[in-house]
């Protein structure tokens, strides 16, 4: 067989581990050929690819990023791919495609699968918000980076009797904020899933100071928003790439807390350090297993699926399940974490 | 309510996180009192304990070890505990006990439960070999430490064209070797679950050298053993504490490989660094959830159980399930890892 | 003897290591008594202090922050201290004071010394900009944190063909930017010591893209400023605490580069994670040696001095030397780093 | 100019950083050509080398090991090199050689320099025992790895009321033991420079237990030896490579302490993890500066020298100075560390 592999969407620790594992299993295990498309679906459309043998993936297991590059695909080009998938497959000689990516990539994969392309997706997101799988690789690394930051910030907060507001990634789902907040022992956690009342945060900090704990750490997801009327909140300026820039919720909340508390509050916006660099052991194992099982799925013709973690097993679930809704933090996980506001 | 908590058995990153979480949930959530017994079951028997309030567990989330201490319990004293549990409970005023520990501790807990003591266990082992739960806290930290070591050893192995043999923990189950071997990209993995053929390892190394990869890393569990007749193997001397000392399988295998290959092979015995120190974010979250749910189980009278991870949920399973058999690495996980010998 | 110790100014990894070392050397080595003033000079003025024995400093070597707390002192209260130092010494019974702090603290120490108080200062700053010592503790940790961040950001930059702008600490001296930029292999480094030309950065990035390296990382000190006319630059709004908030140079530069290059550029503002948390081994050793030698200086009556690293030796230099000028990055270090703009 | 570079001797974090820096400075700074000899002096003798341009050293700054490989050289082949250096230079076209290595390599470099070869050495050792330079790269990384291990072991020691004996590298000089022992807060430190009395260690542990600190950590250099008559000590078996195997001082001391104290004592032999893997920021900066200055020395004809750190400056000192004696831990540093036995 000849299998194509590509990575698309945002950077995520573990991408290279999946690529390596696909090559190991396909080439060494089945005697397949593997080719890697460059810069995501673009490489498929433009015929930019290179053969991947064992040497090509040597030493990449622990490296962040993706040796294949990644790029966003415009919608019309995706349609082009769907319409010409047969020709594209023929031209590149592939019998199956393994796209590694997030929600957008899996949606594209589903489209290609729906028109007949033999596709097995591998879900990828540091946000852990893809449906149908217990976890995604990259998430553990992101939580680890955020937790280490909170650990560091706590000592400063305590020494200076300050409030620290740490903004972590998560536009629509608050998994990183939830787990790094729990792991770091944050006193307040704010998630996109539940609008927060600033008053409650103020009260929590004041109660801490009152019983002699003269500092607090709040961990807030970038997508968290205050409850209606809870604090002044206008949408920031939108840049040419569609992002609301430099006026994130972390900065705003720190400013608001400082004003209301009359105590120093400092924001820290972790940003892209959460999504790059060497993956944790957990993510390397999960990514490696995903790659291995994606090749197995290809060989048993289990197309239109994506790999998934279900308990301790790697399974496959329909791509349709993966993209049908975002997996957000359920109420009971918030309840259990106690410090979610 | 008044809840007793104790930690028993070997050190394990996350013990303090469980203790803290039990106190937070019980005291802040339910208005309970919590007391901590010192040095495991000994503290229960000898009446050595101290009250644990929120301040007592402040700042311990990220700390390794256990603030309560831990100690092995002789079998006859355990019988003593079982016979007098009612009096012991009365003397200390506890309505329920949360013992945090490994197989031995859970077996003891089951004994106490069988005679009527209200017990909810929390499983603990860096080895990940307790039945009935997907994972135990401490395991992720151990795998992380071992993986970082393999990462480091690989560069030396490569620069010096050497074979490195890394011995990791795991007397009866090879989970740490399996996952750190996968995460570190070890070329050979040896587990207690499957006797290894030295010839196969020799062949693997020679094939690597033949295709220009002039180094290899073997990750071996301390409990792994060569197949009958595969290499000279006599049991080492046993010290006063019952351990086979200084002649572990890592040293023996490195020596044997060096002899057969005629190439330098170096053993590294990771030892106790795998079981101490600050827990990973993953382990802190799991430990915190276990503690929280143990208190909930106490409050709903769900005794004779232990907390467990089942997929993404924390559940409780009978203590009997937890101790009925060791959870070892199944065949399919070995197959999937490819480099298991 | 009875020695007072206090920590003042911003958080800095290694403060606790100094405190511990002072206590170890004074109490165990000389049979002294040590008291710790709370929240810097405030504790001295208000008579808030506590005895520090070996148990009081147990386990703090690796902990960030300061067990004594820290606070800014208003200028008029400092005068109060200088005028009443004799009475203050008498009231607290101290024979000598060891203040641990940055430029402000050392200036205050010098004032106290000038009026006759027996003072031995210990210099502290993550910025490494105190004169008279080769290095200060805290700096190595800050550089380590920043370097790890750059390592992580590089893989994302490369995978996404982006420019990453990392803003690190350093208002007046660029040591952190210089060394973390070198250690992380940043392609551009901007320091407060030398106004940068945006055009040069643009050219550097374009040349990289031209030769196939389709990403770049710029490491910029928070105090770096563009050369006159090099890019639009107005001072940001000043908050109630006198800080220019939320409009730092990192954000501005990323925005400007994106506009000029027509490529995605992302800012990451590391902020307070650089100044908290567990110190590196290097900083622990340096801090421990500083503490030890401060006590020795006290015992030989070597007052009006601060400890300093000179090559491999710990020496003392006059406080006047430490505060006479800021130690900034000299031209030749910039030249040597090559990527300084 | 055409400059040759090679790495020889044991693995050391930072080797790749030197190679990269030599290439950057020579190629980009001076328009030189650089060639890299493979496997140390062997590559020079056998004419195995490859050109090193900017792309060849891309991404290696943070990687452990050496892209050029390393190997021991037999003494007679070294003589061969000395006798034929002129021909070797001509054959490979080099105008100068930059050997990066430890004592053996620098001695060889001196021999080559003495017969007229234009050589600038770069000193390398994780042991920090080369004369004439304040520090060598690799040392900081080794100390960091050892310190993290001690941090981890301490929590286990404390939880289990045990003595932990950590054996770190250092056959002839105890720098790693000294600094990691200080940074980790070891209660006993044993160095090759001073035979230790087991009785003193026993007394220290007993005193700790007596005042309620029921654990201890001893950090011992592999080359440390007990004082005459202090404990039974016979030399272990010597293997085919000349090493005394599997019977190191760490194991012996733990065994002896256990016997004398009647308490559990556990050895941990850190081994090769100390010498591989990604270098710390400190080591990357030092290695980069060494590489840069080695090229400058070549260009100003400053041959027969090695680069050195002198305070904050990089200087050059005669190779003769670097190899005239081992830089061991002086008495005053032991005194200052307090816990050296």
Automatic annotation (TrEMBL), chains A, B, C, D:
<feature type="binding site" description="in other chain">
    <location>
        <begin position="169"/>
        <end position="171"/>
    </location>
    <ligand>
        <name>substrate</name>
    </ligand>
</feature>
<feature type="binding site" description="in other chain">
    <location>
        <begin position="125"/>
        <end position="127"/>
    </location>
    <ligand>
        <name>substrate</name>
    </ligand>
</feature>
<feature type="binding site">
    <location>
        <position position="10"/>
    </location>
    <ligand>
        <name>ATP</name>
    </ligand>
</feature>
<comment type="similarity">
    <text>Belongs to the phosphofructokinase type A (PFKA) family. Mixed-substrate PFK group III subfamily.</text>
</comment>
<keyword id="KW-0547">Nucleotide-binding</keyword>
<dbReference type="InterPro" id="IPR022953">
    <property type="entry name" value="ATP_PFK"/>
</dbReference>
<comment type="pathway">
    <text>Carbohydrate degradation; glycolysis; D-glyceraldehyde 3-phosphate and glycerone phosphate from D-glucose: step 3/4.</text>
</comment>
<keyword id="KW-0418">Kinase</keyword>
<protein>
    <recommendedName>
        <fullName>ATP-dependent 6-phosphofructokinase</fullName>
        <ecNumber>2.7.1.11</ecNumber>
    </recommendedName>
</protein>
<feature type="binding site">
    <location>
        <begin position="102"/>
        <end position="105"/>
    </location>
    <ligand>
        <name>ATP</name>
    </ligand>
</feature>
<keyword id="KW-0963">Cytoplasm</keyword>
<keyword id="KW-0479">Metal-binding</keyword>
<dbReference type="InterPro" id="IPR015912">
    <property type="entry name" value="Phosphofructokinase_CS"/>
</dbReference>
<dbReference type="InterPro" id="IPR035966">
    <property type="entry name" value="PKF_sf"/>
</dbReference>
<keyword id="KW-0460">Magnesium</keyword>
<keyword id="KW-0808">Transferase</keyword>
<keyword id="KW-0067">ATP-binding</keyword>
<dbReference type="InterPro" id="IPR012003">
    <property type="entry name" value="ATP_PFK_prok-type"/>
</dbReference>
<dbReference type="InterPro" id="IPR012829">
    <property type="entry name" value="Phosphofructokinase_III"/>
</dbReference>
<feature type="site" description="Important for substrate specificity; cannot use PPi as phosphoryl donor">
    <location>
        <position position="104"/>
    </location>
</feature>
<comment type="function">
    <text>Catalyzes the phosphorylation of D-fructose 6-phosphate to fructose 1,6-bisphosphate by ATP, the first committing step of glycolysis.</text>
</comment>
<feature type="binding site">
    <location>
        <begin position="72"/>
        <end position="73"/>
    </location>
    <ligand>
        <name>ATP</name>
    </ligand>
</feature>
<feature type="binding site">
    <location>
        <position position="103"/>
    </location>
    <ligand>
        <name>Mg(2+)</name>
    </ligand>
</feature>
<feature type="binding site" description="in other chain">
    <location>
        <begin position="272"/>
        <end position="275"/>
    </location>
    <ligand>
        <name>substrate</name>
    </ligand>
</feature>
<feature type="domain" description="Phosphofructokinase">
    <location>
        <begin position="2"/>
        <end position="298"/>
    </location>
</feature>
<comment type="subunit">
    <text>Homodimer or homotetramer.</text>
</comment>
<feature type="binding site">
    <location>
        <position position="162"/>
    </location>
    <ligand>
        <name>substrate</name>
    </ligand>
</feature>
<dbReference type="Pfam" id="PF00365">
    <property type="entry name" value="PFK"/>
</dbReference>
<feature type="binding site" description="in other chain">
    <location>
        <position position="222"/>
    </location>
    <ligand>
        <name>substrate</name>
    </ligand>
</feature>
<feature type="active site" description="Proton acceptor">
    <location>
        <position position="127"/>
    </location>
</feature>
<feature type="binding site">
    <location>
        <position position="266"/>
    </location>
    <ligand>
        <name>substrate</name>
    </ligand>
</feature>
<dbReference type="InterPro" id="IPR000023">
    <property type="entry name" value="Phosphofructokinase_dom"/>
</dbReference>
<keyword id="KW-0324">Glycolysis</keyword>
